[in-house]
Fold this sequence. Notes:
This protein has one helix at residues 61-67; strands at 2-5, 23-26, 31-33, 38-42, 45-48, 53-58, 69-71, 76-78, 87-92, 98-100, 105-113. The protein is mostly beta strands.
Amino acid sequence: MKIKKLNDNAIIPSRGSSSAAGYDLYTTDEVTIAPGETVLVGTGLAMEIPEGYFGAVFARSGLATKEGLRPANCVGVIDADYRGELKVPLHNDSASERHVVAGERIAQLVIMPFLAVDFEEADELTDTARSTGGFGSTGKV
């Protein structure tokens, strides 16, 4: 997959192990994030995601658990036709200021396939055993 460094400080995403699904994303920014605040943090990278795929940006479990920092939109979606800088809106869920330094891992990127569908308006839908049962309707927790 093609990736372009937009500045010299950008770091190409890397995996923590050969079995890891996510590629760590690193920031080129140095920011302080106040409690409850969201800051858009740059990676200095642009990429060419193949057609039929998208980039899913997830929290890094350690950063979210230990520091209270996670992507504000929980899961970001990068479409295959986007060519701008990849930025992560980091939100501080903690009660303390958090500092992010250039070169720090801030999120993880998973490249995933998707199915494009055409919606067809219908008056009726096929019935199922569950039917219109909503949250908790299966009785399983």
